[in-house]
């Protein structure tokens, strides 16, 4: 068996040559750094290093669980992520179906390209655009006042209570087109004869979508839903970093930004690592829970 395995490796050396560099990079940059998680259980000092820093057990975890700021940060993270999930997730499916139903090839490609483009723009660029558009004299307020929908400019970015919606809608605008790729790929694999048979039976377009398209992409929907739920604590760091200001900081501080401020700005590496571990553990629990739920409800799961 051992010789057969070695023989297969030799026979596939071209494929192995492509795979092993990626595995090596993953080991170096993903697995080896995990040793650094030990500092969450230490009063870590860069001068003392991993081995000589004082071991404090779960004190860092107790500290952030008792920190009132952490619960505000957790509320912001969950609020923004849940809004993105409830609005953005079904919107991607709807947009994918609409693009799939386009029959003019050139217009279909144009629509896909336009919907993808914002994904490739960094939040540094988009942040500047949104700050300009949403300012008191910006495009959005100018249109609202021109249409007599408001009498005075709306302080979108300086109104803390409205930040969740700004973060949610701007992120959806950026990512919704990109999120349709897997759904469109799954729709391309649906047998066209199913639609032909449905049309012969008198099924209209909405019924074709309900009974053919949606069941045909249900496995991708389940996959994306489970992954989205698992990343619900991973709100966009770059977005919050760019759109945050002194007026909305109470509502824009999310877990990733909280960890960034603690770890890099204040140098409290142990505390920041403990918060990161907590976020990762909760994300895994949510991932398993979403997978279990979809398996019970729809008898389908990703593992």
How would you describe this protein?
This protein has a two-stranded antiparallel ribbon with strand order 1-2. It is globular. Helices cover 70% and strands 1% of the residues. The two termini are 29 Å apart. By secondary structure, it is mostly helical. The protein has helices at 2-11, 13-31, 49-52, 59-65, 68-101, 105-116, 123-133, 139-146, 163-175, 181-188, 192-200, 205-216, 218-230, 237-243, 249-252, 255-265, 269-298; strands spanning 42-43, 54-55. This is Sugar ABC transporter permease. Belongs to the binding-protein-dependent transport system permease family. It comes from Paenibacillus lycopersici. It is found in: Cell membrane.
List the keywords.
303 residues, 17 helices, 2 strands, MetI-like fold, mainly alpha, single chain, two-stranded antiparallel ribbon
Provide a brief overview of the structure.
By secondary structure, the chain is mainly alpha-helical. The protein contains 17 helices and two strands.
